Amino acid sequence: MLSRYVLPYLVADALFVATGGLLVTVILMSKSEMNVPTTDDVTPYLLLAHAPLNGALADAGLIFATFVVSLPALIFTNNRIWLKVHSWMVLVCILLTLVIGLEVWFSTLKTRANLAIMWSKESPQIQHLLQERWQCCGYMDVPFHSDSTCPTPIIAMSKTNCVGPFSNYANDFLDVVFTAIFGMVDAILLLCGLVVLKKRAEEQRYKHIDEKSRYSRIWV
Questions:
Q1: Is the overall model pTM greater than 0.70, yes or no?
Q2: Which of 14, 25, 19, 3 is nearest to 71 (CA)?
Q3: Is residue 5 over pLDDT 80?
Q4: Nearest 5°: phi and psi at 159?
Q5: CA distance 68 to 66
Q6: Is 50 exceeded by the pLDDT of residue 179?
Q7: Cβ density class 27-63: b for 16+ within 10 Å, e for less
Q8: Contact criterion met (CB below 8 Å) for 181 and 97
């Protein structure tokens, strides 16, 4: 029967590896869809192309490696070394997640400026898809691309600039990414692991005291 302090650790460990699997799934799906953008998916296509996907993939790989280390930590209950190694690896996961999450968060503070650079570097085809998607013309100081949505300067002036709808969508999208990356599962797992480590240390201490007491009674 599992101890009451081990069960939360098991649940947190299962959720921890599940977040790694979810992260890998989302990244692979995102990369597979980053081929030929259409009007409907051109905005997430651009945002994902500039998101730290490789860093998130490295984070997922570290999550799986950390989960593997947790297995001997659970099996060998009398050995605390595996549990200590696992706790340190969880801490590294937290730090890596923090770095990636902060990178995403800082990018949300200057969304409009970043999107202006992104817009100016894109091909006329991508600019056309963005204008068609948001029914707008141009982005801030970047001139509009002449297409079916904005065929003439007069029509372009009658429509809104793309900075509003494009940046609003980008902020909402990055907020979701930021929330997903800044999961609390790894922090909870670290706390549960430290509790198990403390309890096992206490159990070994009481065991040594009991063995000493028994040894003393033999010689009395």
A1: yes
A2: 14
A3: no
A4: -105, 160
A5: 5
A6: yes
A7: beebeeeeeebeeeebbbbbbbeebbbebbeebbebb
A8: yes
Mean pLDDT over all residues of the chain?
80
Q: What is the 3-state secondary structure (H, E, C) of the chain?
A: CCCCCHHHHHHHHHHHHHHHHHHHHHHHHHHHCCCCCCCCCHHHHHHHHCCCHHHHHHHHHHHHHHHHHHHHHHHCCCCCHHHHHHHHHHHHHHHHHHHHHHHHHHHHHCHHHHHHHHHHHCCHHHHHHHHHHHCCCCECCECCCCCCCCCCHHHHHHCCCCHHHHHHHHHHHHHHHHHHHCCCHHHHHHHHHHHHHHHHHHHHHHHHHHHHHHHHHHHC
Between CA 49 and CA 91 the distance in angstroms is 28
Lowest mean pLDDT among 63-67, 68-72, 133-137, 174-178: 174-178
- The residue with tokens 């159990």 is 203
- The four Cα atoms 153, 158, 159, 162 give a dihedral, to 10 degrees, of 60
Comparing CA positions, the residue from 12, 26, 16, 11 lying closest to residue 63 is 16
